[in-house]
Amino acid sequence: MAAHPTAAPPARTAASGADRRPAPELAPGPGPDGVARITRPPSEPASNPSPKATAGNALAAEAVAEKSRSAVGALAVRVLRKALVPLVSAGLALGAWYLVSLVLLSPQRRFLLPPPHRVLTESLADPAKLEVMLRALAVTARIAVTGLALAAVIGVAVGVIMSQAKVVERVVYPYAVVLQAIPVLAVVPLIGLWFGYGPTARTIVCVLIAVHPIIAMTLFGIQSVDANLRELFALGRSNRLRRLVSLELPAALPSIMASLRTAAGLAVTGAVIGDMFFAKGQPGIGTLLDTYRARLQSEDLLAALVLAALFGVTVFALFTAAQRLTVGRWHASGR
């Protein structure tokens, strides 16, 4: 019997569902090196996005733009709300100023309170007068910053020492209260006799005015630490220094920052008072205030007052921002 040839397996005519790319084709003839070359079919061009995908992308972009516009609008509303009250207050103050100057005062007595536009045109807009005032304000600012720094160091140190020893608190705190109760003008002559009438005496006045709130608030903040946390540190057998650095001072930081914000304004007041009573050396803004008062230069007097007030507000705002940066994330006093 003749042997039947074995049937060849059926050729694959189609790829599986996972791979439907056409098989590579052999070139019709061998290459120069005698090896058959394999050619790949040309890639198919990218298909255009469907209308539904285009519409979806447009809707997503529009939603993102609308969200950005709403965020910007909400921020503008918050800024407007915060600025509205100060602007209205400033407008009412200017209106009251004009009312007193132009309505209540007769023209013969209007030099006592000239209207705001005269203060602006005859004093603040004069470059020569403004330069003199800014130089004097720089002197006052230097005295205020120096006095505030000394008051901060002394106040925090005294508050910490009193918090660690009840005997020291009973001895020192009454003198701090007496120092706050006595008007600084009453001790100004003694300061002049003991320390002269120059910048040193002005700085001492700043320290005397600004140090008491720092002492009181530092002591209050340390004494207000949670008793449970104190017991936790006691269980860990922490010594007094570690407890002070790791627990008490961080817990008292909101009180200390609040006291510094208060003391900053008091230091500016002390610097102006020191300028008025201790005129030896470079004149400060308080020296100019006293000079303008004696000469009845009302426009210059009010302009110098405005500059001193703006400086005080700026210092207060800087310490408010510092308080928010240091304790605003975890304490309500800095928000």
From TrEMBL:
Q: Which InterPro entries match?
A: MetI-like, MetI-like_sf
Membrane-topology descriptor = Multi-pass membrane protein
Would I find Transcription regulation among this entry's keywords?
A: no
Domain ABC transmembrane type-1, by residue range, is: 137-320
Q: Where is the composition biased (Low complexity)?
A: 1-15
Q: Lineage of the source organism?
A: Bacteria, Bacillati, Actinomycetota, Actinomycetes, Mycobacteriales
What residue intervals traverse the membrane?
84-105, 139-161, 173-195, 201-222, 301-322
Protein name in the entry: ABC transporter permease subunit
Keywords, A to Z, come to: Cell membrane, Membrane, Transmembrane, Transmembrane helix, Transport
Task: Describe the family membership recorded for this protein in Swiss-Prot or TrEMBL.
Answer: Belongs to the binding-protein-dependent transport system permease family.
Where does the record say this protein resides? Answer: Cell membrane
